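not sure who needs this but someone in the group chat was asking about SGNH hydrolase-type esterase domain-containing protein from Rhodosorus marinus so here u go. i didnt clean anything up, its just raw.
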Amino acid sequence: MGVRKVVLVGGAMVAGVTLAQAANLWLSYQSPPDPAGPQFGLETYKAKTSELSHQGRVLVDGVAEKYKAKKMELAEQGRNLVDGMSETYKAKSIFFREGVRAMWQSVSRPEDHAQRDDFMIALQRAVARLKGSERKVDSAESNEGPAKQAKARRILFIGDSLVQGVGCEDGNGPTLPRKVAEFLADKWKVDVSWRALGISGGDVRQLREEVLPLLQEDVTVVKSQRTRLLSEDSDKELLSRPPVDAVFLVVGLNDWKKAVRTGRSWRSFREDLHELVRDIKEICGEDCTVVLPSLPGVDFAPLFREPLRSLLRVMNGRWDEQKRYLAENLKQVHFVDKPTLKFWGTTSAEVSDEMFCNDRVHPNEKGYTKWGEYLAESLSNAFRPESKKSDIVDA
C-alpha cells in the first residue's frame, strides 16, 4: 500500500510539473517572424559545369584536328617567307603577318569559308554554354526563362513555420526546401525547382483551406508552360510527367498542440491528413509522390525540458503513426522517420546548441540544411519503382 501511494504521489508531482512547464511555454513563447527572401527558386545541377567543360574540350580538340592540315600548310608558307627574308626583316615581317592573315581569310575553295564559319560559330556556342552553366539560378523569374523552369523537376513544400523557414536569418527565404532541391539536383543530375507554401502555426485543416487553392494555381501555370513549350519543342516527355514530382507535407506539430485545446484526437488528424493527401493527388496527379516527414525538433529543441519533453515525444510519436499508416496504405506516399542521433554526427546536447535558432524551438540554417540532406536522400530512395496499394479503404 505504501509503494502504491508513493507511485501515485510521484506521478501526480510529475504531471503537475509537466502541466506547469506547458502552461509557461504557452504563455511566454513568441515565434520569430517569417524570414525575408523568395518562397520559390531553381537549383541547378552543379556538376553541369565540369560536364560542359569536357564537352567544350572535346569540341575544340575535334575542330583543331580537323583544321590541323590547313594550319600546317599556312605554317610552311610562313617558314618559306621567313627563310627568304633579307636585311629588310621588319618590313617583310609585317608583310608575313598580313599575308598569313589574308591567306586564312581568303581560302581558295568556297567550302572552306563555310567550314571556317562553322568552326567559329561552334566555338562561340561552346563558350556561351560554359559561361551560362556557371550562373546560379535561384528565382523562377530568372534570365533562363520559363522554358528552363518547365523542364526542371519540381518539388513543393506545404506545411507550417518549418516550411516558411522560421529561424532562418540569411535573407534567402526558407532553407529547408531550398536545400532539399539543391541536394536532389546533384543526386538526380537535373535542375530542380522548388516552392514553399506554408502558414506559420497552420494545422492540416487550415492548410487544406488556404494552401490548396495556391497549389491549384501553381499546377495550372506549369501545365500551361509545358503545353506552350511543347509547341516549340519536340520533348513530349514533358506532358507525361506530373506537374509536381513530389510534395513534402510538413505537418503534425500544430495539430497535436491544438488537440489539447480542441479535443481532436489522433484519429481526427489521420482523417484530415488523408483528405489533404487525396486533394493533392487530385491536383498534381497520382504519380506525384507525397512525402510525410516526422518532425525531429521535439527530441532536441532546447526549450523543451523534462518531463515535458517526454510527453511531447509520446504525442509526436502518436501523430507520426498516422503518417506511417497512410504511407503504408496509399499509392506514392512516403513516410520519413526521424534521423537518428548518429546522422547528426554529434551528441544530443551539441545538436541542441548548434542546430537551433535563438527561440530554441526552430532550426537554424545549419539545422535546416542537415535535415534537408536527410529528406533529399529519403525522397531519392522513395522514387524507386515498386508496386503499391491503390487507395485506402477505411481511414
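also The radius of gyration is 31 Å. if thats useful
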